[in-house]
Amino acid sequence: MNSGRGRLSKAWANELLRYGIKVLREWWVKPNSSKNSVVVKKRLVEIFISHLEQEGYWWQARRLRNHLHRYLQSCANSSDALSERERRETSSRIALIEGLVLE
Predict the structure, then answer these.
(1) What is the total count of domains within the chain?
(2) Rounded to an integer, what distance in angstroms lies between the CA atom of residue 62 and that of residue 67?
(3) Which long-range contacts (CB under 8 A, 24 or more apart) does 23-28 make?
(4) What per-residue confidence (pLDDT) applies to 92?
(5) Is residue 78 part of a domain?
């Protein structure tokens, strides 16, 4: 289950958890693009959760997943639903982010 480079530290896992929460609470992508921001934030945090799970940090992954669900619920409550077209439009941005995170 580890990624060949050896087990990462608990400090790394806690830092990634804090950073993921910060992404959800504070990041914005473009001032007039809140819907695209939701898609990008969601995908980026899902990548973080996946890395935490792969490295065996289940507690941090669960906490981050909880924050993601709370964030998405707050978006749904504010009528910030994502259309299929908007999801497709951001797919290239998400691919770029995935490439940067995995490097």
Answers:
(1) 1
(2) 9
(3) 23/48, 24/67, 24/68, 24/71, 25/71
(4) 59
(5) yes
Q: CA 33, CA 49: separation in Å to the nearest integer?
A: 24
In a domain, 3, yes or no: no
Tell me if residue 25 falls in helix, strand or coil: helix
Is the pLDDT at 4 greater than 50, yes or no?
Answer: no
Q: Which residue has the higher pLDDT, 81 or 42?
A: 42
Quote the CA–CA distance of 97 and 12 in Å, as a whole number. 20
- Token pair in block for residue 34: 């809140």
Cite the beta strand spans of 1-103 per DSSP E: none
Measure the CA–CA gap between 21 and 62, rounded to whole angstroms.
12
User: Is residue 87 domain-resident?
Assistant: yes
The range of the structural domain enclosing residue 70 comes to: 10-102
What is the pTM (predicted TM-score) of this model?
0.66
Q: Which residue has the tokens 């896992």?
A: 13
Q: Find out whether 55 and 13 touch, Cβ atoms under 8 Å.
A: yes
